[in-house]
Design a protein that fits this description.
alpha+beta, Alpha-Beta Plaits, four-stranded antiparallel β-sheet, 3 helices
Length: 101
């Protein structure tokens, strides 16, 4: 899971303007490589936005963002998550406790 933040108001404005004509398919196809890809994306009006990534490592995420030019306009905090649950697929399984992993 990554928390992304724009480096400046101008950076945010430029990114928003670039995305205006993009589709969800465009977004997901752009942010994928052999080692990393975005699975989900959340953005509001704030300076932060969030992406659920599948990647071999945090470095692979940063490498993809760098190749895409995104590291010039955002800063990224990548955190590996050991637990993922969703109300879209309730399985009645015991929760994974990351500290026990």
């Amino acid at each position: 899971m990554c928390t992304h933040s724009y480096l400046s108001g101008d950076a945010k404005e430029n990114v928003v303007n670039e995305l205006r004509e993009s589709t969800d398919r465009d977004f997901f196809e752009f942010y994928q490589s052999d080692k990393a890809r975005v699975l989900q994306h959340w953005a509001g009006k704030d300076e932060f936005f969030f992406c659920h990534w599948e990647a071999e490592s945090a470095d692979d995420i940063h490498e993809l963002l760098s190749k895409a030019g995104a590291d010039d306009v955002i800063i990224t905090l990548a955190n590996e998550m050991q637990r993922y649950i969703t109300s879209h697929n309730i399985e009645d399984k015991k929760l994974v406790i990351p500290e026990d992993e």
